Amino acid sequence: MAAAAGVSPTTVSHVLSGNRPVNERTATRVRSVVSRLGYVPASLARGLQAGSTSVIGLLIPDISNTFFAELAKGVEDAAHHLGYGVILCNTEFDSDREDRYLGLIRSRFVDGVVYAAGSPPSRQRLDALVGQFPIALADEEVEGLGATLITTADHEGGGRLVGEHLRTLGHRRALMLTGPSDLRSSSARGSGFKEAFEGEVVERVGDFKEESGYRLMKEALATGRLEQTAVFAGNDLMAIGALAALREAGLSVPQDVSLAGFDDIRAASLVFPPLTTVHQPAYDVGHTATTQLLQYVARHQVPPSARHTLPVQLKVRESTAPPAP
Amino acid sequence: MAAAAGVSPTTVSHVLSGNRPVNERTATRVRSVVSRLGYVPASLARGLQAGSTSVIGLLIPDISNTFFAELAKGVEDAAHHLGYGVILCNTEFDSDREDRYLGLIRSRFVDGVVYAAGSPPSRQRLDALVGQFPIALADEEVEGLGATLITTADHEGGGRLVGEHLRTLGHRRALMLTGPSDLRSSSARGSGFKEAFEGEVVERVGDFKEESGYRLMKEALATGRLEQTAVFAGNDLMAIGALAALREAGLSVPQDVSLAGFDDIRAASLVFPPLTTVHQPAYDVGHTATTQLLQYVARHQVPPSARHTLPVQLKVRESTAPPAP
DNA sequence: TTGTAAGCGTTATCAG
DNA sequence: CTGATAACGCTTACAA
Fold this sequence. Notes:
Two copies of one chain form a homodimer.
Chain A: H1 2-5, H2 9-17, H3 24-37, H4 43-50, E1 55-60, H5 66-81, E2 85-90, H6 95-106, E3 112-115, H7 122-127, E4 135-138, E5 149-153, H8 155-169, E6 173-178, H9 184-197, E7 200-205, H10 210-222, E8 230-233, H11 236-248, E9 258-260, H12 266-270, E10 277-279, H13 282-297, E11 306-310, E12 313-315
Parallel strand pairs in A: 1-2, 1-3, 3-4, 4-5, 5-11, 6-7, 6-8, 8-9
Antiparallel strand pairs in A: 10-12
Helix pairs in contact in A: 5-13, 8-9, 10-11
The structure holds a DNA duplex.
């Protein structure tokens, strides 16, 4: 490239970066050759020299889950806006896969990480990174981790909103279909709910997947007549599973039983009946986490501890109603 | 690192790569230092030396669209399986953004690209790349592009399936709410449909977004009584929009009008009534495109022209029925 | 205003 | 069996 323009690589570099003045004639000549040849500086070489890649990693368990897809969009938007690329690390809840990606991170292919795959086995793996590498936890916090940026929705507040809502409607006995008990997001939803509901709550533990909502609901139904008048599912996916089980059992929502979810994924408003749920700002979580992270990454600093809790919103739709008399 | 183990960098490299025999004692010592220090070779330096990054780019318009999210998952799975990472390039249908990402590609940050953002303005931008850079087109082909790998679902066949289905039910007049006319996928669905339907078809052109389905349906309804007994939307999103418009107009599906979509996104089976649609193997499209692409990338070859058309499947649900007598 | 040379952290080649 | 050296393609002192 330099040869083609009859100048040194240095000059080409400076023409392109504007890092030092270049004679206008020379610059023009260089630019014309650059565009004729379609030359673009090799980002690897540049990154090696600069000690940074302008790319961040996004670790999530499942990109086809609309919640994470929204979050990913927020991350990508923020990153793009600040001049960073995003490398997609889909773990499928698989620890081998997560390991591989953590390796990629430690090989300094990325300048920072937005970590949204908070399943517990991740902890030890993360430990090695945190404090030495810029990480922002999104959506899920990881217990016992050192200094980190944390951005989550207000899970506890959301649970509280649902609890109040059902109590106000007149429900006194509720069934909770929770997510994994070792996830803070899951337990926080539950504790918020129980605190506000004040009535009798029976818990069944699932895993945030649709199938577990279905199965748990089936099990609850199998014991005979359902004792509770309301069901609070740990997330919308589980609620949708529970809805199917309820329908199969000939129970109608909300006449026979009220049902509420969490997340407000797109499907929640599409099912019949549309689901009462807690809107979680997935996009904002991703966006905020990324903006926070990059603020430090750009200055070559390891981020400090800080927590951002984003507000949630109760969406009352048609799946909840007063209990049958 | 090398110093800490008392050997040369060369030896460290060989211990880690296994590229040449190393004395077992030396190797053990090196490995212990490696793990104590948590050393991982810098991928940038490695990539610079090797002339490849083991990362591919995935260009899509919108990761929060479930179709693309599924496709992305297929891409990521295939890539991961073959030892590649995926960098997420979400264009938001924005050409500036696409340009930035194409720049990233031309800077050789990636070894290849899966391109699934086939909006027409992309063509000239792609031209500069194709033939010099490994690209696989997924889901959407771009007209007039040179040698490329193309993987799409059988859009035309899918349209045909819907056409036959509606004709068999007894419909003779249909309204088509199409996607952008300059997308092959969209026009192919339409031509397949018209060919098989054999009846009278009125077309209205939208843009594959939910809102356009709603608007187009509204417009059709505004002209007075709907002349057609069946509506074929270019994709499920548009069908869901149309469904809302129909509902608002007091028309019920499928009693008053039959409605079919395309894609079989998750929401399609969740809406009420569940949508008759064409299942498009989004995951497989992504997976196939990536597998094909990497086959050449791994050998440092530019891929030849080849086309893979993946079969689609008609999912008959409750939104279609014989026309009212 | 421009060029030369060092160095970023690897791996391949060539020696020993 | 192991080490020195060059090279990957850039950017940035340092020189001219």
